[in-house]
Amino acid sequence: MRIIIVGGVAGGMSCAARARRLDEQADIIVLERGAHVSFANCGLPYFVGGEIDDPSALLVQTPASLRAALALDVRPGNEVIAVDAAARTVTVRSSEGLEQIEYDALVLSPGASAFVPPIPGVDSPRMRTLRTVEDAIALREKVDAGARRAVVLGAGFIGIEAAEALAAQGLEVSVVEMATQPLPPVEPELAWLVSEELRALGIDLHVGVAATSIEQDADVDTVVLADGTRLAADLIVLSVGVRPDTAVFEAAGVACERGAMVVDDHGRTSVPGIWAVGDATLSVDPITGSRRPVALAGPANRAGRLVADDILRPDLARAVPRPAGTAIVRVGSLTAALTGANRVALDSSGTAYRTLHLHANQHAGYFPGASQIHLVVHIAPESGRLLGAQAVGVEGVDKRIDVLATAIRAGMTVEDLIDLDLAYSPPYGQAKDAVNLVGMVGANVRNGTLSLWYADELDDILDSALILDVRRHDEWVTGHLPGALHIPHTELRERIGEVREQAAGRPVRVMCASGVRSAIAHRVVAQAGMPSASLSGGILTLRAALGARAADVLEDERVSERV
Fold it and tell me: Which residues touch 170 (CB under 8 Å, ≥6 apart)?
């Protein structure tokens, strides 16, 4: 059997390696149009930033090593320009000319190409993407040659990694993002923490605005934004998105949707004998059922392995899992991670959900170095099923998101999280781990013990309810909502009459720093016969949700004292 794999790196090479392990006699050919068939594309920003010093460290395997270890025929610099599905041949262009190669099974792993916006000057020689080893080397050379100013177009995961890398090399970095926040898939109240960290790194952040042109000059380019801002740039990183690279295969009859190849649960395309994996395929969201490409290395690797199984032992092959889109990124001292669906996806699909905000310590509070993990978790109100989770923090984010991603994959409910037996020792966690606490809060919400109100309801709450702030006085003076009644939670039982009098029949909306004390106070108020709810995530979440507006909305008594 001859298996031809178009495209290497994650999906293609995992398929080739698995196929060889299953069939020592198969003729396996990998056709890669680029110079490198197996490289660490996720490591590229860290080479630009100097944390990885040797570019050869980015090369995971070479054609020679793959031939020696797995007897694979790997051909870099070979571009497939046509597929004849009826004849089962591919036409390949290389430095030696055109060649037709027959196949018994064809696996397509072409990946995606960078989207290039149609703006004047986008062909500048100072412009680079960051998708190949050559891109990373070119950017590093510009840095080493004395580049001082960089503009990154796009604040997605790669754009943020590129910005951090360039800032670490001492460049003045500006980031431009059309969305209203960096990392658009991240919930706004967490993205604000990322914005603040980027500014702390000295990165100039421009959100809610697009680049309209690039003015090229002999010495420097100028990136012109829609709001009139002009940014000087010695180098420009383009990271505004990708498009599946599928035109050749769509022309051959492979069904595509919005440019991505449609595959079944085993990676089979609409054309017999052709499979597809990776960034250029449509995946079904396991939460919302929506269909979208998932440009992540993990799902591509797993799909490649399973496609090889389907080709060579179909009776035993498992279905390709539907990826939840679990992803993680470092931003300065912070880590941001997500899994499952966010609010935008849930709203678009009409999926009902409730949101939980927590600010749990990553390890025991009494152990030195404790810091908060800021968690946002979405659950189904009827079933309690976990729908999505996101986290930002200094430490421990990766562990909690991985546990929650596993729970989502297992179809667990929020109550199930209470019972997870997670590793505990003071340097590593708490006896009630952050994940266990998600379960406890979610269970309380679902069984009615805890009612929540949210930061996006603030304007209505200010008009219709009594806000009860139960923080200590030293916390209260650092910023509080106008018209709020301040009673520390330890004094509430003795002063509940004040709450009743001030409420005057209105509902009571309780708040504290993170939602822990306000949950206790909510139970006191509710059992005193008054309608009550606790602010989800407390003022920590409220400040982040308000973002730059917080200074205008919150009253800071320290300012009054200084005046």
Answer: none
The number of beta carbons lying within 10 Å of the beta carbon of residue 173 is: 25
The residue count of the chain comes to 563
Residue 557 in this model has a pLDDT that exceeds 80: no
Beta bridge partners of 281: 261
**DSSP state letters, 412-460:** -BHHHHHT------TTT--SS-HHHHHHHHHHHHHHTS--EE-GGGHHH
Model pLDDT for residues 9-27, shown as the tens digit of each residue: 889 999 999 999 999 999 9
484 touches 467 (CB < 8 A): yes
pLDDT at 563 over 50: no
pTM for the structure as a whole: 0.94
First to last CA, the chain: 82
Compute the 3-state secondary structure of the chain and give helix, strand, coil in percent, each to the nearest 5. Answer: 35, 25, 40
Token duo for residue 151: 């503009």
Q: Are 26 and 311 in contact (CB under 8 A)?
A: no
H or E segment and range at residue 361: strand 354-361
Reported in sequence order, the residue ranges of 263-353 that DSSP labels E, i.e. its strands, are 274-276, 283-284, 291-292, 327-331, 334-340
Q: Residue 295 is encoded by which pair of tokens? A: 């440009």
pLDDT in tens, 452-504: 999 999 999 999 999 999 999 999 999 999 999 999 999 999 999 999 999 99
Domain architecture of the chain: domains with CATH: 2-112+243-312 (3.50.50.60), 127-240 (3.50.50.60), 333-447 (3.50.50.60), 452-562 (3.40.250.10)
- Cβ 555 vs Cβ 480: under 8 Å: yes
229: closest CA among 175, 163, 165, 183? 175
Question: Is residue 36 exposed (0-12), middle (13-18) or buried (19+ Cβ within 10 Å)?
Answer: buried
Half-sphere exposure of 149 (CA within 13 A, CB side): 12
